[in-house]
TrEMBL record:
Name of the featured protein: Phosphotriesterase-related protein
Free-text cofactor note: Binds 2 divalent metal cations per subunit.
Keyword Metal-binding: yes
Alphabetical keyword list: Hydrolase, Metal-binding
Organism: Kineococcus radiotolerans
Residue numbers binding Zn(2+) 2: K147, H180, H208
Domain of life: Bacteria
GO MF term set: hydrolase activity; zinc ion binding
Alphabetized InterPro entries for the sequence: Metal_Hydrolase (IPR032466), Phosphotriesterase (IPR001559)
Residue numbers of N6-carboxylysine PTMs: K147
PROSITE patterns named in the record: PHOSPHOTRIESTERASE_2
C-alpha cells in the first residue's frame, strides 16, 4: 500500500540558502549544526571575521562530506551575537550545492547584542519577522527559524522579552522557535510563555534535550506538544545517546524526536579556524546502531527525513 500523502507538509517549504524546498526536494536533514561560531564578546578584535577563502577551505569539505554521506540539507544554528555570517554560508552552500537553513533570533546573556536591550518588544518582533520574510543582512536569504536560549537558573528579563517576541513572530509566519536551554523546568517555562503569545506548541523545539537527565521532564516537554532534539551524536561515546533515543521511541515519542551532531565549525578565534568535526557520524555509525537495535527503516526516516522537515518547514 502506498504511504499516505501528508498534504499539510506538501504545502510547506524549508527556507534555505538555495531557496525554498518542498518535502519532495529533500531527504535526510541535519537539524542542528554550525558552520561558523564566535563565542568571544562582540567587541573583540576580529569578532566574526574570516577570510572567505580560508573559511571555504575549512567548511566546504564538511559540507561535501555530508552530501556524500546522504545529507540533503543542513540547519546552521548560529544566531546573531555568536558570529552569524550568512554571506559566507551562502557562498559555500552555492559552491557545494548543499542547502543550508539559517537562523534569526537572540541567544542568552552574555551574548545578547547591545541593541536588543534598547529595542522595544514590538521592534524585536518586527526584526525577527523581517528576517523570516524579507531576508538576512541584505543577502536575500530568508531565515528558516528562530534560535533563542535562556540561563540555566531561570529566564532572565531580556530572555523573557526575546521568548515573547520570537513567539509572536513565529506565530505570524509559521516558523519554528528552537531553544538552547538545558534545564528542563526552564524549557517548560519558555513553552508556557510562547504559548501565551499565540505560538502552537508544535512550533517549539527543545534543543540539546540529551542534557535534560530527568525522563519525566523530557516526557513533559513532549506532552506539551513540542519537539525534542538529541544533538550530540559523534561528540564521544554515543552509547548514552543511543539509549536515550531508544527510550524515546519506546515511550512513543518517535513523531517528535530530531537527531543531529552540533558539529562543525570555523572558529575565528582560533588559528586557521580551528579543527572542525564532520557531519557524518549520524549516517556512518549512529543510524547503523539504531538499525542493529531493531529500529526499522520507516522509523529512521521519521527521525531523519520527515521529522526535521515537519519541524522546520513553514
Amino acid at each position: 500500500m502506498a504511504e499516505p500523502i501528508d498534504t499539510a507538509a506538501q504545502a510547506r517549504h524549508l527556507h534555505t540558502t538555495l531557496g525554498p524546498l518542498g518535502a519532495r526536494d529533500v531527504g535526510l536533514v541535519l537539524p542542528h549544526e554550525h558552520l561558523l561560531v564566535d563565542f568571544r564578546p562582540a567587541d573583540s578584535p576580529g569578532f566574526a571575521q574570516a577570510d572567505p577563502a580560508e573559511f571555504a577551505s575549512v567548511v566546504e569539505p564538511l559540507l561535501a562530506g555530508a552530501a556524500a554521506a546522504g545529507v540533503t540539507a543542513l540547519v546552521e544554528c548560529t544566531p546573531p551575537g555568536l558570529g552569524r555570517r550568512v554571506d559566507l554560508v551562502l557562498d559555500v552552500s552555492r559552491r557545494t550545492g548543499v542547502p543550508v537553513v539559517v537562523a534569526t533570533g537572540v541567544y542568552r546573556e552574555p551574548w545578547v547584542p547591545d541593541w536588543v536591550y534598547g529595542a522595544s518588544d514590538d521592534e524585536l518582533e518586527a526584526w525577527m519577522h523581517r528576517e523570516l520574510t524579507e531576508g538576512v543582512d541584505g543577502s536575500g536569504v530568508l531565515a528558516g527559524f528562530i534560535k533563542i536560549s535562556a540561563a540555566e537558573d531561570g529566564i532572565r528579563p531580556v530572555e523573557e522579552r526575546v521568548v515573547r517576541a520570537a513567539a509572536r513572530a513565529a506565530a505570524r509566519t509559521g516558523a519554528l522557535v528552537g531553544s538552547h536551554t538545558t534545564n528542563g523546568d526552564v524549557v517548560l517555562g519558555q513553552i508556557d510563555l510562547a504559548v501565551a503569545e499565540g505560538l502552537a506548541p508544535d512550533r517549539f523545539l527543545s534543543i540539546h534535550t540529551q542534557t535534560i537527565t530527568d525522563p519525566a521532564l523530557r516526557q513533559a516537554i513532549v506532552d506539551r506538544g513540542a519537539w525534542i532534539e538529541f544533538d550530540d551524536v559523534g561528540q564521544g561515546d554515543d552509547t548514552r545517546t543511543l539509549e536515550l533515543v531508544l527510550g524515546s521511541l519506546e515511550a512513543g515519542q518517535a513523531g517528535q524526536v530530531l537527531l543531529s551532531h552540533d558539529a562543525g565549525w570555523f572558529d575565528p578565534a582560533l588559528p586557521g579556524g580551528g579543527t572542525p568535526r564532520p557531519f557524518t557520524d549520524l549516517t556512518g555509525s549512529f543510524l547503523p546502531a539504531l538499525r542493529a537495535a531493531g529500529v526499522d527503516a520507516d522509523v529512521v526516516d521519521d527521525l531523519c527525513v520527515r521529522n526535521p522537515f515537519r519541524a522546520f518547514a513553514r
